[in-house]
Amino acid sequence: MAGGTKRDYDGNARAKSTQELPRGRFHAMFENFRDELDEHYDRRERIIKASRDVTAQSKKIIFTLQRVKQPNKDFPKGIQQDIDTRLGEISKLLSGITADVQSINRYRYGFSLRCLEELVEALSFAHYLRHQTLITLEETQAAVPADIMLTPHDYMYGLFDLFGELMRFATVTTAQTGELVGDYERNISSDIQELGCAFEMLPQVPTKDFRSKMEVMRQSINKVEKLGYGLVVRGSERPKGWVPDMKDDDPRPASPV
Amino acid sequence: MSAPPHSLLDPSIFASLESKLEEETQVRDTLSQIVQRLERAVATAQGLLSRVHSTPRSRYPALVAQVEAAVKEEALIISELEKVASQHPYYKYNHKWSRSIQNAIGTTIYCAWLGGFPAESSSSSPESTSKAPEIGRLLTLEEVGAIFSVPTNLKDRDAFHLTIEEYLLSLVDLTQDLSRLATNAVTLGDFQLPLTISAFVKDLFAGFQLLNLKNDIIRKRADSVKYEVKRVEDVVYDLSLRGLIQRPSAGDTEMESA
User: Fold this and answer.
1) Are residues B144 and B200 in the same domain?
2) B10, B13, B229: best mutation site toward chain A, by most A Cβ within 10 Å?
3) Contact between chains at A18 and B249 (C-beta distance less than 8 A)
4) What total number of domains does chain A contain?
5) Are B52 and B77 within one domain?
6) pLDDT value at position A231?
7) Of A212 and B122, the one with more pLDDT
8) How far is C-alpha B258 from the chain's CA centre?
9) Has UniProt tagged this entry with the keyword rRNA-binding (chain B) (predicted)?
10) B109: nearest Cα among B207, B38, B35, B42
11) How far is CA B9 from CA A62, A169, A200, A203, B113, in A?
12) Are the beta carbons of B7 and A195 closer than 8 angstroms?
């Protein structure tokens, strides 16, 4: 667009009109396209911005939740407050783009709205810590603080990320308490295994994304299993506060979001 | 299997995920089959259109009639696609067909450019038999939609339609083929066609310049239009240098008075 004015040999601005008056032929049509495309680009921009912030807030909720010491209890006051404030923030951010992602536009900007996966991760983790059960799609939808439809895809990929959080939580609490936490004759190790089995039974989706999530999931399960093994084999010798080697702890490849 | 009193997960969660995934696979398969047929139909139309490069202008009408028939074949398959696709969120599956649809749009506008799909009520000279079809007409997105009997640029409801993006990309394809046609027309002794093409491609280029494109596929493809403009200009230059054409925009050029 920026190109300067074309000039003729004598330096006078070349009358573009001789060549460009006929351009009027498609001018109106392209102007209409421009308006439509601008609207689309602006909308996408808004969604990406909000999504980035919602992702950040969700991650912070997850960090906060990792500080919970005992599952199946009401969260300590400070933690609950922190979560509530951040959910309020998320609610504000999402309500700003609710109109942008209705009807046909919900899937159109699905990729830009990846924050919902992160939010599902946070909500499902909170739910597990509080109830030691897996949150359902309906419960997750109800917990989303905005009038935005959660797709099964958001839900499923959010749950994939739950494995990493469960693994971290298991690692820390095991180090602190010397046992795998859990009630109802279950513990976090058997829970993560059960959840893993459920995913293994699903029909495989032939995408790279799905395959890599499955792989990361298996690694997380494996790490928790090793914790259990460690407890049995060297449980008695383990000095209090000993933390397993965490060097390859982060299961997620540096994600762009 | 009796669920323990307090179990980790409600089995219906994964049963429902499973059925959704299976449904998606089915939808994809169905769409793939339709799109495959559409691709074949498009290939037929494109094959016919490629003959234009060795066809003198006087024989365009015969060729165009064949292409029109091929486009109608495309339209049949597209209406099938519309029926299936409209049952699902448009943008969930549109990647399956958008390339083929873009090509189908391309064959249609090319056909019309060569004189096909004459405007319904040719307001000008109603008597004159349409013996000399107009060359260089650009179908609008809406006109293409009408030929395929599908909506265009839908915003208020979630159903199958042709998008602006598909249309714009097909215009880029068109400029590419027209610049080739400019050369081949000269070879066949048609020195006027390059002028028509030149004016048309320049108009399109001017149109593309009006868009505020982001760094996406449209921008990448639209960037190539200027090279096509240049290629056609080179042809026109060669012709005018050798006095093989009258300069269209009279005035400053020293027209031979004879």
Assistant:
1) no
2) B13
3) yes
4) 1
5) yes
6) 87
7) A212
8) 42
9) no
10) B42
11) 21, 19, 15, 18, 61
12) no
B174 contacts in A (CB within 8 Å)? none
Rounded-to-integer distance, Cα B169 and Cα B173, Å: 7
Number of domains chain B contains: 2
CB contact under 8 A, A198 and B14: yes
Do B8 and A133 make contact, defined as CB atoms within 8 angstroms? yes
Q: Which chain A residue is nearest to residue B17, measuring alpha carbons?
A: A152
Arithmetic mean of pLDDT, B3-25: 88
Answer yes or no: do B59 and B75 share one domain.
yes
Residue pointed to by tokens 């996966």? A117
Distance from CA of A106 to the nearest CA of B (A): 8
Question: Based on the domain organization, do B150 and B88 belong to the same domain?
Answer: yes
Instruction: Tell me, yes or no, whether B6 lies in a domain.
Output: no
Across the range A44-63, mean pLDDT stands at 97
Minimal C-alpha gap between B64 and chain A (Å): 24
Do B71 and B180 reside in the same domain of the chain?
no
Min Cα–Cα distance to chain B from A221, Å: 16
Tell whether B87 and B210 lie within a shared domain: no
Tell me which amino acid residue B207 is. G
- Give the one of B5, B140, B214 whose C-beta lies nearest to A29's C-beta: B140
A205 → chain B, closest CA residue: B21
Domain residues for the domain of B206 are 167-246
Residue B64 covered by a domain = yes
Question: ipTM value of the model?
Answer: 0.87
**How confident is the model at residue A202, as a pLDDT?**
95
